[in-house]
Amino acid sequence: MPFDPTKLKDWQIAEEAEKSLPTNEDWIERLGLEKDELIPMGRTPKLDFIKIMDRMENKPDGKFIEVTAITPTPLGEGKSTTSLGLIEGLGKRGKNVGGCLRQPSGGPTMNIKGTAAGGGNALLIPMTEFSLGLTGDINDITNAHNLAMVALNARMQHERNYDDETLATRGLKRLDIDPTNVEMGWVIDFAAQGLRNIIMGIGAQRDGYMMQSRFAISVSSELMAILAVATDLADLRKRIGEMTVAYDKKGNPVTAEDLEVAGAMTAWMRNTINPTLCATVEGQPVMVHAGPFANIAIGQSSIIGDRVGLKMFDYHVTESGFAADIGFEKFWNVKCRLSGLKPNVSVLVATVRALKMHGGGPKVVPGRPIPEEYTTQNLELVEKGFCNLKHMIEVVKKSGITPVVCINSFYTDTEEEVKLVRKLVEETNTRVAVSEHWLKGGEGALELADVVAEACEEPNEYKPLYPLDMPLRERVDAIAREVYGADGVDWSPLAEEKAKRFESDPKFADFQTMMVKTHLSLTHDPTLKGVPTGWRLPIRDILVYSGAKFLCPMAGTISLMPGTGSDPAYRRIDVDTKTGKVSGLF
Amino acid sequence: MPFDPTKLKDWQIAEEAEKSLPTNEDWIERLGLEKDELIPMGRTPKLDFIKIMDRMENKPDGKFIEVTAITPTPLGEGKSTTSLGLIEGLGKRGKNVGGCLRQPSGGPTMNIKGTAAGGGNALLIPMTEFSLGLTGDINDITNAHNLAMVALNARMQHERNYDDETLATRGLKRLDIDPTNVEMGWVIDFAAQGLRNIIMGIGAQRDGYMMQSRFAISVSSELMAILAVATDLADLRKRIGEMTVAYDKKGNPVTAEDLEVAGAMTAWMRNTINPTLCATVEGQPVMVHAGPFANIAIGQSSIIGDRVGLKMFDYHVTESGFAADIGFEKFWNVKCRLSGLKPNVSVLVATVRALKMHGGGPKVVPGRPIPEEYTTQNLELVEKGFCNLKHMIEVVKKSGITPVVCINSFYTDTEEEVKLVRKLVEETNTRVAVSEHWLKGGEGALELADVVAEACEEPNEYKPLYPLDMPLRERVDAIAREVYGADGVDWSPLAEEKAKRFESDPKFADFQTMMVKTHLSLTHDPTLKGVPTGWRLPIRDILVYSGAKFLCPMAGTISLMPGTGSDPAYRRIDVDTKTGKVSGLF
To answer: Do B260 and B359 share a domain, yes or no?
Structure first.
C-alpha cells in the first residue's frame, strides 16, 4: 500500500486489497456492534439499523459531511473517489470515520462510465459484489416495481373481459383505469434504450391489455426514492401503498393499495431497509444504501444510512449525485429538510479536466481517447472554466453549509494548473485542499482531511432555498434562477396544466420538489458548459411520486432510460472460472 | 410438533418452525462441513459445492430418489410436499437424508398457485426467503438474460446508425442481425401476460431498434436450463457464450459471444452456481438449486445439487416438475443422461382429488371453491381416474427406475377411497404407500419412507427411451407415443423445416430434446384428462437453446409466459412492519 494505479486496473487493486477485507467478526469488534446487529451476507453483511439506532439513541451525532462536485465531464470527476479518499484521510488521522454511498446501477456499470466504486487507492471493496447487485436491493426494487405493473395490466385485462358481476365474485370493484393516463412504467436496471417506448398487450383476450408503456432504469423508480427517504419499514409500507400507478377515467389516482399489491411489493422490498456494509481499500467502514442518478432520481444515499452513520461514526461522509446544481440541490432542499439532520460541510470536487472543458476545451466523449488539451498544461482553459466552480461555491454558500473545495488531482495535471485553481478558489474566501487519494490513498488525502475537519468545527446555519409553503411554480423558478442561473422557466401546456392542479390541491401541499434535469450542464442542454447566461428552463412534464411525496418537473428532453453506447463496458468483463473472480470492472 | 395444518396456514407454521431453524454453526456440525464450505447469507447459506465435492470425492454415492406425479389438477398434487414428507419420514427413521428442490418462481407465488414450499407439516423453511427471491439466483438469471437482449438491440441500433468504418473505430464488425429472426426474448419473473408480445424500439434514432419482441417468465430462460445442467463455472461460461441470441441475414446464429456479452452475463450469474441450503420444518437439510416449470423449461433441480447431495446424504431426494410425462421424462432422458447418475427410485405422487378429476369430475379452477365431488366419497370417479396413474406407472417402468406410488392423503379423503387406490396400484405389481405428511410430518410418512428405503435396495437398470443418435423427429415421435400415448406427431411447416435443418446439421447431433407441453393433460390440450386416445401431437415451433444444447419442440398453444388471474395471491400478502415478517404466503 498504496497500490500503483497507473499500472494496476481498479479491479486488480480491489482483488489485492480484498485479501484484508474486514470479516464479520472484525466489524463487530471494530464498530462495537452486538452480534445480532450484523446480518451475514457473503462478504457484504447488512446492518440491522433499527437495533443499532435503539442501542445508540442517546449518543450525540457525529459531524456530517457531504460530497458534491462541479458540472462533470461525462466521465465523472471522482466524487465517489473523493468521498472514499476523504474517509481514508480522516482514518489516517486516527478519526472514527465512515460513510454511506449509493449502490451503483447496472446501467453505467455495463455501459460506458463503469461502476461507482471510486478508483485507484480510493476504492470501495469488495468491488465485484458492490458492482454486480450487492445484497440485491436494486433487484428487490425492480421486482416490487414491476409487480405493480403486472397488477395494473392484469387488472385492466380482467376489467375488459369481465362484467361487474363476475368481478364481484372475486371481490373486485371496477377501477375503470384510463389506458391513456398511466403514471408508472416498467423498470429494468440496464441502459435499455430499446425499451424506452413500447406497445404491450398485443395478442388475444388473455394476452394483457394493449397500451403504450415504457421502461425506465430501475434506480429511477419511485421505490428507490422511497427507500432513500423512508424512516423505517412501516413508513416504507405506507408510502408504497400511496404510490400512484395510474388514473381512472375521471382522473382520480389508482394507487398500489387500490390494486391490492402494496403489501406484496413491501414483502419483496423487506430486506432493502437495512444498509449493506463495505469498506475502503484501507479498511474504513462504508455503508451502501439507496441509488444513484441525481439527474433522473433523488440520487442520494439514504436518510437511514445517514442516521445510523452519524451515531456510529464521529465523521460521517455521504455523497450527492453529480453536480451541486443537481445532487446537492436535492440534498439541501429535499433530503436534509426531510431528515432534519444538519450537515456541517459540503466538499465540492473539481478537476483540472472538467475546468478545462468548461473553459472551452474540446468535447469529452466516453469510450474515446481524451483530447490532448486535457493531458497537457493549459492555464487559459483552466482559468476560463473556473466560472463553473465559482458558481457551485456560491450555490453551496446559499445553503448555509460550509463549503470546502477539493481539487481532485490527476497525475497528468501540472503543478501550475493546480496552483492556479487553488489561487482562484482562495480569492472567493473558500477553503480549498488538493488531494491525491487516487494515487496515494489516505496519505494523499491528509490535507483534505485536515481542512474538512477544521471546517466541521465552524458554526454554520443550514437554511433551505425556499419554504415548503411556496407554490410549485415559484419553487421551480427559484431553483432555476438561484441554482441553475436561468432567467426564468417556460412551462409546456401539459406541465403548466399539471402544475396548476397540484398547486390548488391541498393533497400536494407537503410534496417535495425533485427536479429532473441533465447533470452535464447547468442548463437543460448537456452541450452547454461553463455558466451559461440568457436562457430559460423549459419544463415539459411533471412526474407524480405520491408515495415518496415528490413532484418531479422534467426539464428539456431528458429520459429516465439511458442508452447503451457502441463500446460498452460489458465487452471487457469476464470471469476467471477457476477462482470465480470477475475481471474488467472499472 | 406436528402443527395443526387444518387450523394454521402454511406461513404461520413456518413462522413457528423457524424458531428452531438450524444456524450456520448447526449445519457445519451436522453435515460435517469445513467452515469455508458454507457461505453465510442471512438465514439461507450457500454451499461451496466445488470444495465439498473435492473433499468427498472418494465417498460412494448415496441412494438417489426422484419424486414425480400423475397429471395434476391446476392446484398441484403435493409433489414438493411429498418430497419434503419423504425426507422427514426417512429422517424420523434415523437415516442421513437430504434433498434438492427448485427455487419457486415469482409468477405462481404472486399469482394463484402460491409458492412451492410444500405445505402443512411437510414444509420448507425459511418460507419467506424461499418464496421471495432466496439468495437471488433468479434475479441473477434475469439480469444476465436481459443483458444479452440489451446488447442485441443496442448493437442493432448502432449498426443501423453507423457505417462500417465508424463501427471499426469501436472494434466492431457488422453482424447484420435479422430483426425478423431473433431467437431470444426478454424475461421477467412474474406472470406478465401483457408483455407476451411487444413492439419495442419506438422513437427516434437513439431509442433502440424497432422490432417485435416478447417477455417470457425468467425461470423458462435458457440460462436456467444451463444452470440445471452445468457441471461448474467453466462449463457455465462456455455454454453462455454459445447461446444463440438471434440470426444474421444469412441465417447464421449470432451468439452471446458474438455480442461480446457472455463474460459479463457469467459475471452476473457467478453466485448461482452454488446451491442454497434450507430445511424441512423437522430440520433435515434441503438444498435449493435451479428452477421450476417442467412444462416450459427443464424444470429440474440442478445436476450440481444431485452430485453434492449424493455425497453428503445416504438418501438424496429430488423432484421433477409436474407429471411423469413432463418432468420425469426430462429427468429420465435428459438430466440423468447428462449427469450419468443412476436413480434408484421414482416416487409417483397421486391424490384422490386428481384421480377423481381424471375419472370425469368437474373442472377444478384455481381460486374458486372446489366442487363437492372432491370433498365427499366417490369411488366411481376414483376408479375411472386410475387410468392416468396406471399410465404414469408404466412410463416410469419403461425407464428401468423402480417406481413407488405415494398416495398423498388429504384429510377429506375417505378410508375406502384410499383403500381402493392402494388395491388398484397393487394390481399393477407396484409398491405403494399412503402418506399423511401434510397432516403429521415425518410421523405420517413412515410407511412411505420404509417402502422407498426397501425399493432402493432393489437392483434396477436405468435405460433412456431413445438413443442420442436417433433423429429429432423420431425422438419426438417416440416420446409422443411411448410417454404421452399419442398416435403420432403433426409438424407445422415451420417446425418441420427447422427439424429437417437440425437433423442434417452435425452441430446439433449431441443436442438434447426438451419438450414444451402443458402439464395439465397427457396431450397438448389442458382440458383433456385421464388417458386420452386417438390423438396426434401438434408441434408448432422449435426453440434452440444452443448453450444448454437443447432443441425444444413446442406442442399446442403453450406460452412461455403465464398469466396473472383475477384473484392473485399478492392480494393477501403483506408485511408485519414491526417484525418484518411476511404473511399470506401459501
So the answer is: no
Banded pLDDT at A43 (limits 50, 70, 90): very high
* Gap between the Cα atoms of A431 and A350, Å rounded: 13
CA quadruple B78, B84, B89, B90: dihedral sign: positive
Pairing of strands B537-545, B489-491: parallel
In chain A, which residues have their Cβ closer than 8 Å to the Cβ of B129?
A: none
Q: How many residues does chain A have?
A: 586
Are B308 and B451 within one domain? yes
Q: What is the pTM assigned to this prediction? A: 0.97
- Amino acid at residue number B206: R
- In whole angstroms, what is the distance from residue A480 CA to residue B135 CA? 45
Reported ipTM: 0.96
- CATH number reported for the structural domain that contains residue A236 in this entry: 3.30.1510.10
pLDDT single digits (tens) B269-320: 999 999 999 999 999 999 999 999 888 888 999 999 999 999 999 999 999 9
Task: DSSP for B216-256, please give it.
Answer: EEGGGSHHHHHHHH--SHHHHHHHHHH-EEEEETTS-EEET
The domain in which residue A199 lies consists of 137-264
- Which residues fall within 8 angstroms of residue B4, CB to CB, at 6 or more apart? none
Span A70-99, mean pLDDT?
A: 95
Give residues 261 to 280 of A whose Cβ lies within 8 Å of B: 261, 263-264, 266-268, 270-271, 273
Per CB-CB distance under 8 Å, the chain B contacts of A263 are: 570, 572-575, 584
pLDDT digits (tens, 9 = 90+) for B237-249: 999 999 999 999 9
Q: Confidence band (pLDDT; 50, 70, 90) for B75?
A: confident
- How large a percentage of chain B has pLDDT more than 70? 100
Q: Could you read off the pLDDT of B168-224 as tens digits, one per residue? A: 999 999 999 999 999 999 999 999 999 999 999 999 999 999 999 999 999 999 999
Assess whether A252 and A164 both reside in one domain. Answer: yes
Query: What residues are paired with A23 via a beta bridge?
Result: none
For residues A242 and A227, membership in a common domain is answered with yes
Residue A575 lies in a domain: no
- Residue B567 domain-assigned? no
Q: Collect all residues with Cβ–Cβ distance below 8 Å to A47 and sequence separation of at least 6.
A: A33, A37, A38, A39, A274, A275, A276, A277, A287, A308
Alpha helical stretches, state H, B335-485: 336-339, 352-358, 379-398, 415-426, 437-440, 446-456, 472-478
Query: Is there a single domain that holds both residue A258 and residue A316?
Result: no
What span, in angstroms and rounded, lies between the C-alpha atoms of B142 and B149?
11
* CA-based nearest distance A342→chain B, Å: 28
Interchain CB distance below 8 Å, A146 and B192 = yes
What does the DSSP assignment read for A182-217? E---EEESS--GGGSSEEE--SSTTS---EEE-EEE
Same domain? B392 vs B528: no
Structural domain tally of chain B? 3
Same domain as A96, residue A142: no
B78 marked as part of a ligand binding site: yes
**Residues of chain A contacting B566 with CB distance shorter than 8 Å:** 154, 158, 162, 167, 170, 172
pLDDT for A294 equals 86
Report the Cα B108 to chain-centroid distance in Å.
13
List the CATH number of the domain containing A483. 3.10.410.10
Is B75 annotated as ligand-binding? Answer: yes
In a domain, A368, yes or no: no
Q: Is residue A399 part of a domain?
A: no
